[in-house]
Amino acid sequence: MSKLKPCEKCGSSNVSVGVFSDALYRGLCQDCGHGYENWEYSGEEAIKAWNTRPIEDELRKQLAEKDAEIAKFRAENEKLRSMLFGYVNNECNRIENNRGRGRDCACQKKSLKKTASAEERQ
Ligand SMILES: [Zn+2]
User: CA–CA separation, 105 vs 63, rounded Å?
Assistant: First the structure.
């Protein structure tokens, strides 16, 4: 006999095939009482029906695709973040390296000085 998937309502693995009048079968959750909507004529058919979940399978497939997409974007974001912070840190290091040596930084420090002297003139 094939294995039943966990209950689609509560996720419990405590599921079995319920039998009605020794003739009709359906998957049944022993924990939440959820039963498959249709009765089948054999236990195997009941298991097949219980395990067939086209909407759930389609949603799982879509979720896997979205997860892969998110992982791609995260990796791309991480790459861009390291590029950006690498750039910013280089700027800061240059300021730190030039501080106290009587040299102006080629980037931010100069523009700050220009701004300061422009304010002094007013
Ligand atoms: Zn259940």
Answer: 50
